[in-house]
């Protein structure tokens, strides 16, 4: 394996030490199945975190707990200074601050690209239509598909759809972005265009938590790589260290499988 | 082989093939027939069978229509005119078509149901076609009150005061919504409206009528009938059962156990009982249960029952649509911070209803046909009238002419609904062009 050293954006290091997400001793069960065990994680504002791990290790479940798509049963999750409890007000507040991109994009197929992007700003934030459309076009330009604004999601390629999904999240001007395997439903050709968008976002200092198997992306932009197995955080480290000197056996095994051939 | 050396594995395209137009299609009647009627032995046999069937069953009907008599006073006179030839006696339709359409509605007041028909078309148009000006929705909003007033007549203050209840309830809701949270504003609005309707509406409407009398001659529910009653019951049932069906479907999949239990219980009860039973309950039993002085118009009772009946079926159809939506749609809506009702209104329902269009229209068509069951509780719909006409000495023995006409009226309405739904489905397709 060749070691590629790439220039990392410097903004993260100089960012303030303000805390974006804090997870303290969090546990979650599905019925009797203990999916997440004693998770402790602190994410500083502007930090880019990549979460890796074998299938079924609880990566998705963990980041979905951060915007309450899944409910945790014990421990604390504090997002942007607000603790997630069953209080619906807090949940709605946190959800509008936290953007999320899914593996299968989950665009709204009955709305045009533009409508997908303006819906939440208009109805959740109460932004007037004109303004919401201007914002939407701004972000669609950013993800390089302004010319598709009036099409429906079903007419776009997978890569384009995922970029629209990113733009849709950005239109809410989130302070934190969650990505759950954003490229794993895509053809290799399209992976790059989505990763490029994510790299650009990272370079602007967005706080990001990405579940991904794209180790190149992790090397290039992550401040920290977290390795999960069986519902636990097994190892976390800076990417160089993580890839070159994995400490735990399970990490070594995982890395050899994913990078090995 | 001499040309072996010409075949090489290596290949590099030097010029790209430019796009060209698709090959033109052969056309013509002969080709169409060969492809569609005589493409295989099986197909040939089916075609011949179909021709034989048409020849034997439909061709003999032609003289019956062509020789039909349109002007006569009785079936006997028809027969004299026909003088032994086959032919229909459509004179019964010429004489009674108004009755079939309007029932026993007073002749001098026919303009009222006619105006109602026209207004209905205007009111339905902006809902059916979203490219029409939104201002037309005002006609839609007024329509329910206008319809009641036009058909049943009476003082205009009666319907206006009922409408005012909705207005007051809405104002109270808006007012409470600024100060209170959750369902409370809704309940406040509802309470204000109910208090108004129960205690204040009557005296206020009476007072206004004595100061500024204005109204139409009253027409009783017993005088309604024919196509008019079908339309009133059918349209009211369709318009009311869709929202109730949506609420029931959402209730059935809700996480709240009590809500879920009530909805499941209601749906399963209604689906387990034939409509005719519910109609008998509406016409006979309800009188025993209600306090002695409370009277409830028969047509209104029928509308309530038909609505409840249809909404239970719609709920199940819509639940199917909801189940067909991928979970990701709910998650995306949640992740964007939309509230439950916003997500339902903007994301979930538009898609679930679109998926359910064929089932919904099926239910609507069923409901419209079922309106003819009111015949059994003493309301003279078209079938009831046909029976009455056939009991008249002048028309005893007439049969096909009336029922073909009635069938045709129902068919036109239901075929229209079906065509509209297919057009809507095509229009709502967004996956490709
Ligand atoms: N709704 C659910 N009910 C019960 N078990 C679940 C549910 N969702 C996930 N699980 C289980 O929880 C575990 C963790 O799932 P999760 O989706 O978080 O894994 P993951 O690390 O994201 O895996 P992948 O890489 O395959 O996406 C798995 O064993 C899965 O079977
Ligand atoms: Mg996952």
Fold and architecture overview:
Chain A: This is Glutamine transport ATP-binding protein GlnQ. The complex is a heterodimer of chains A (261) and B (433). Chain A is an alpha/beta fold. Chain A has a single domain, classed as Rossmann fold, CATH 3.40.50. In chain A, the strands form two sheets. A six-stranded mixed sheet of chain A has the order 6-7-8-3-9-10, with helices on both faces. In chain A, strands 2-1-4-5 form a four-stranded antiparallel sheet, with helices on one face. Chain B has a domain of 30 residues. The longest helix of chain B is centred in the C-terminal third of the chain and has 31 residues. The mean pLDDT of chain B is 89. Bound molecules: adenosine-5'-triphosphate and magnesium ion. The site of adenosine-5'-triphosphate has 11 residues of chain A, from strand 2 and helix 2.
Distance between the termini of chain B: 51 Å
Instruction: Please state the structural category of chain A.
Output: alpha/beta
Approximately how much helix is present in the residues of chain B?
A: 55-70%
Please name the two chains that share the biggest interface, counting residues whose Cβ lies under 8 Å from a Cβ on the partner chain.
A-B, 27 and 22 residues
Shape of chain A: globular
Ligand catalogue: adenosine-5'-triphosphate, magnesium ion
CATH superfamily of chain A: P-loop containing nucleotide triphosphate hydrolases
Helix content of chain A: 25-40%
SSE string of chain B, helices as H and strands as E: HHHHHHHEHHEHHHHHHHH
Keywords (chain B): Cell membrane, Membrane, Transmembrane, Transmembrane helix, Transport
InterPro entries (chain B): AA_ABC_transptr_permease_3TM (IPR010065), ArtM/GltK/GlnP/TcyL/YhdX-like (IPR043429), MetI-like (IPR000515), MetI-like_sf (IPR035906)
GO molecular function (chain B): transmembrane transporter activity
Pfam family, one (chain B): BPD_transp_1
